[in-house]
Amino acid sequence: QVQLVESGGGLVQAGGSLRLSCVASGSIFSINSMGWYRQAPGKQRELVAAITSSGSTNYADSVKGRFTISRANAKNTVYLQMNSLKPEDTAVYYCYARIRASTVVAATDYWGQGTQVTVSS
């Protein structure tokens, strides 16, 4: 069993910052990519940022230059530093991780429960 637990969401004014964290725990042999998706009311879930085990990153165009993803491999943790937040960043943010539980099983995507980020104008 694998669990992803997010923290760091909340309410912030436009222009402010928040830092999200997500810790993976349980039966983990290795973690490939980790990242963050978000879903606003009435919209589809979209990729915000992702990072590979070697540190390569990918960002949605809407957050480039404002958000930074990083990870601490020894802690099975991924972070999302969000600066210059805008009201349109308001959404539930979901952490994901592609995890292999052992050498004999394929990697599987796991998801966190989501954390609300609300940016007021």
Could you explain how this protein is built, in words?
With 121 residues, this protein is mostly beta strands. It has no helices and eleven strands. The strands form two sheets. Strands 2, 4, 5, 6, 9, 10 and 11 form a seven-stranded mixed β-sheet that branches. A hairpin with a 7-residue loop joins strand 9 and strand 10. The termini are far apart.
Short description:
The chain is mainly β. The protein has no helices and 11 strands. The termini are far apart.
The share of residues in extended strands comes to over 45%
Mean pLDDT over the residues: 96
Number of helices: 0
First-to-last CA distance: 41 Å
User: Helix fraction?
Assistant: under 10%
Biggest pleated sheet = 7 strands, mixed
Low-confidence stretches: none
Gyration radius, in Å: 14 Å
| Strand elements, count | 11
Shape: elongated
Structural class comes to: mainly beta
